[in-house]
Amino acid sequence: MTVAIDVSPLAPADVVAVARDGARVELTAMATAAIERARSVVDALAAGPRPTYGVSTGFGALATRHIPAEQRDQLQRSLIRSHAAGSGPAVEREVVRALMLLRLSTLATGRTGVRRETAQLLADLLNAGISPVVPEYGSLGCSGDLAPLSACALALMGEGEVDDADGVRRPAAEALTAAGLAPVQLAAKEGLALVNGTDGMLGMLLLALHDLRNLLKTADVTAAMSVEAQLGTDRVFAAELHALRPQVGQQASAANLARLLADSGIVASHRGPDCNRVQDAYSLRCSPQVHGAVRDTVDHAAAVAGRELASAIDNPVVIDDRVESNGNFHGAPVAYVLDFLAIVAADLASISERRTDRFLDRARSHGLPPFLAHDPGVDSGHMIAQYTQAGIVSELKRLAVPASVDSIPSSAMQEDHVSMGWGAARKLRRSVDGLTRVLAIEYLTAARALDLRAPLDPAPGTAAAVRLLREAGVEGPGPDRHLAPEIEVAVRLVGSGALVETVETEIGELR
User: Fold this and answer.
1) What is the CATH number of the domain that holds 59?
2) Domain that holds residue 179
3) pLDDT by residue (tens digit) across 333-362?
4) CB 276 within 8 A of CB 322
5) Residues 87-114: tens digit of each pLDDT
6) What's the CA gap between 328 and 44, in Å, rounded?
7) pTM
8) Same-domain status, 208 and 190
9) Which of 53, 282, 336, 387 is catalytic?
10) Are residues 167 and 236 in the same domain?
11) Is 282 in the active site?
């Protein structure tokens, strides 16, 4: 697969394809023409006598110094070297590829003033699988993700360290030579153009949105399994009830739950007039309301991400025959939704953990053995699996504390309000991973409980979910086994999307 880099915005799916799947990129003729037009404007300004920010001046609080022509190339190199000041462990390869791609997409708009060969080398690095080493810490999410993007720009100069296509860490100059590439000598404005964007936080937002779409469907699957195995009612998921509260996400989640529970022998077994269950606990009955609110928040975040994908973020930016300073590099729009998503991820995990906990208490599980144990007392069943869930949920609550409200001034008070969007994105990645694990444990526990309801048959959709787990090597109820490997199998089936795919193959696409 090859992703075209044009003057028009990238699709979110293209970002995931390049970042995770190694898709190739190619600059279009239109993008190349736009890049060259903008470069001609920068060249004209660089040759003129008038000081222009980013072309013939210093940066940030040093912007008042006029830089003579003979030092301007050095100005750009010094910018990258000094700004590549990150610290800590390297961030994930997919994050680096996403931010490289998004910076290339902005360069292709013809608003930054880089040369064609500089943009092309960035594309060549992506296609060669060369991933600069980007440290975890360094970005304040304002004036762009400066330190992370500088680490990438450093590789274009043949400096710093990279991971090659085989994952081997080596000097950038060595990796470029091995790939048949030559480093660039940055010219006027190019250093600034390579680092002044929200690409790191946006890349992580897009990857998180991709994962959360899968996890939202997964949550509906696991909730249906829990409702079914705990002898809950499906009547509360009827469309007529949710029409009374026209929240879009809620209605979609309720429709999914109704479909997932259709034709369930377990639900039918207690549907008669002799059933004394008036209504289920909130964690069962209100699943669509919570899942739906998460869906609506994800949709809002996706809308913000879509607008950011359509943006050309640089400072200064090329407009017609001039460059203009601006504040579009401020990451507030992205930072806020990154924080919103961490909040809803924590709450989605919280309701999942509550559903799981109900299985383990014989006073609330309606006939299931304590902790779903084979021989309670000798066996502990899923007792400690719920502890693991609880520990993760507690961590997710801490990660839900917003990063975007914590601004620390920098650059001698020139940059006196920053977004902390990079930090918000980093913690969201941990939140998504934690949510995946919490849902996986609910999946594992609910599947065991459904088996314990035999000879009653579950619904076709939930039965397919149980079957997938068994085919993946997780056995059904029995004496205690080493549980951690089974949890990891469930994590893989949830995180890869295999669970949702299997269920949708059985009953059709979920909303």
Assistant:
1) 1.10.275.10
2) 2-197
3) 999 999 999 999 999 999 999 999 999 999
4) no
5) 999 999 999 999 999 999 999 999 999 9
6) 24
7) 0.95
8) no
9) 53
10) no
11) no
